[in-house]
Amino acid sequence: MSPDETITHLIGATALILTAAHGAGMLARKLGQPSIVGQLMAGIALGPSLLSQLPSSVGDTLFPAEIAPMLTALGQVSLVLFLYFVGYELDLGLLRGRSRATLSIAVAGFVVPMVLGAGAAMLFAGTLHELGLPEDMSVRSVVFLAVSLSITAVPVLIVVVRENGLAGTVPGVVAVSSAGLIDVVGWSVLLGTLMDDDDGSGMALPVRLVLLAVLVAVMVWPARLLLRRLVRSTGVSSAARLSVLAAFAFTAAWATSALGLHVIFGALLAGVVTPREPDGTLSPDLVRSLDSIGSLLLPFFFVVSGRSVSIGSLDGTAIAVLLAVTVLAVFVKVVPGALAARMSGLDNRTSMTIGVLLSTRGLTELIALNAGHEAGLLSGPLYTVLVLMAIATTLLTQPLLVLVRRIRATDGTAGGHDADGAPDGAGRAVGVGHKPA
Questions:
Q1: Which of 58, 214, 255, 413 is buried most, with the most CB atoms less than 10 Å from its CB?
Q2: Contact call for residues 229 and 240 (beta carbons, < 8 A)
Q3: What would the pLDDT profile of 282-331 be if each residue is shown by its tens digit?
Q4: Cβ-based neighbours of 371, under 8 Å, separated by 6 or more
Q5: CA 14 to CA 396: how far, in whole Å?
Q6: What b/e sequence results for 229-252 when a residue is b if at least 16 CB atoms lie within 10 Å of its CB, and e otherwise?
Q7: What is the pTM of this model?
Q8: In what helix (H) or strand (E) does residue 186 lie, and over which residues does it extend?
């Protein structure tokens, strides 16, 4: 295929991907689900799950092998920008001065899934072996599987909170704050699981750890100081500011990739260290720009991820594991989160709402699973199972919230009280920016 033909195919594939993804996203919203769920399902449909059921010429025509590297590159670009956005909106102030409820819920929502996930992985190692994992799983694989049950997708969670009228209420505030804390710890653990001795970088692990520490120090101090001057300078246009910040994100992503880590860690760290406005708020221009770019490019990541998902290849064992892991994934989030909230003084309905919200996964889970699959920690069938689990738990969030609304608070009050004595629903406004839905 000539270069001109390759470009022509890429342009055609781009039109198909964007149309299918955003069309599915609009349909998902009409069905009461976040649009990102529809986009994710469209990406899976454009992979082997659907195309393998059609004549081989269809898949070869739509997505010839020559454009696969280009689609992967576009997917990685979208991932870097999205994770930079997530890091920018991640408020590390959540680590300080959090209420007893938020801290206890975050601990329960992370530790319990980690423990039960690791225990289940070791207990059913034989079954996982049938899905392609080694019979003697490494510690990294076990920890990674545990992390996959512990993740809460903050971007999707924020959309669910906003679209259900929970922004500013006690369950909305506490759930988002707790999920933010879970994110901080979860990404840190994920970093450790993906840092392997033999990564192909040619550097010994101790050397890479030292270089990673140097990178973090440079980004946290001198780079952050320079960015603060840029962000708060009145003589720099919005376009120039966005260009410099995007270049900073890609540089950080390149650096962590060169150290044998995934690009997601550099992008996330770049977003975390990017200074906010002087009053601590997010820059509306930056948020608007990143949201627009992310919404446009993320479907490429969904398609690239969907190429490793093959629903038709799942056998009886895989389906049984899917059902079991989905039930477990909901249980290990809803029950510990609700119990921790109840023990912190929240009423039953508020506690159950928080537990259900913490079970939201979606895009963040997919990013982690994709990184684990690329690192060889997941087999193809298990990757498919866990991606479907992420979709299922996200789809279940809305019906479970409807069910919880029908449960009367048992304390007999209009809404109960939060851990700090504030009336239910009268909490501070949720400090969330706009995330792509």
A1: 255
A2: no
A3: 888 888 898 888 888 999 999 998 888 988 889 999 999 999 999 999 99
A4: 190, 194, 262, 264
A5: 31
A6: ebbeeeeeeeeebbeebbebbbeb
A7: 0.84
A8: helix 170-194
